[in-house]
Design brief:
about 220 residues, mainly beta, Porin, 8-stranded antiparallel beta barrel, two-stranded antiparallel ribbon, 12 strands
């Protein structure tokens, strides 16, 4: 699924970049903080780890930029599994977390050299567990790769000592969305519908990198 999404997003940028005022590329690295997520008979604790990624964007004018974002986090974790009337079981694993997002970035004042910004994005997150380990190898649980919708938000600052090359520092959070229900209802005033979701875990990213602007 994520391969199809990546292809569509890159194809979209290939078309719209022909009309942009400037293209901006960035690469960055840093640290990602995660946490725990509970489910009906256990919990998953994802440890903190390093993160790297990149963005591809183009200017819309008025300090606004549309942007494709990718990042990858490698970390370890532990599952605490407590089935009814059985002993608690622990499983350690490695986890690859990848975000594929499309969003908007807005410059928040500043000047030509120092440009604070805010960002919002939507997309998907892919969780790929590897190397599941347990003291009791006869009672292992399989962990499947999972892809979910997600959203992101963040603040940062770009510093351009030259016109085309700069650096950026940023803090972002990414939130996978778990949809818990969809409903349709009708009454005397007509019909309507709604859906609900919750956020099982929040990933916090603190990173810095290099920015390259290419004017067209």
């Amino acid at each position: 699924m994520k391969q199809y999404i990546l292809t569509i997003l890159l194809a979209s940028f290939g078309f719209i970049s022909l009309h942009g005022q400037a293209i901006e590329l960035s690469g960055y690295g840093g640290y990602m903080l995660s946490g725990k997520s509970t489910y009906y008979d256990g919990e998953i604790d994802v440890y903190d780890g390093g993160v790297f990624g990149g963005t591809l964007g183009y200017d819309l004018g008025n300090g606004m930029q549309v942007q494709f974002l990718y990042n990858r986090n490698s970390a370890s974790g532990r599952i605490k599994y407590y089935p009814a009337f059985q002993d608690v079981e622990f499983y350690d694993f490695d986890l690859i977390t990848e975000h594929y997002h499309l969003g908007l970035e807005k410059i928040l004042g500043g000047n030509e050299m120092v440009r604070p910004y805010g960002a919002m994005s939507l997309g998907v997150v892919a969780y790929t567990p590897k190397n599941v380990r347990s003291d009791d190898s006869s009672n292992m649980h399989d962990l499947d790769a999972v892809t979910r919708f997600s959203m992101g938000a963040g603040l940062g600052v770009k510093i351009f000592p030259t016109e085309k090359i700069g650096i950026k520092l940023q803090a972002k959070m990414f939130m996978p969305l778990m949809f818990s229900g969809v409903g349709i209802f009708c009454g005397t005033g007509g019909c309507g519908g709604g859906s609900s979701f919750y956020v099982p875990i929040v990933h916090g990213e603190f990173s810095g990198g290099v920015v390259l602007r290419i004017a067209q």
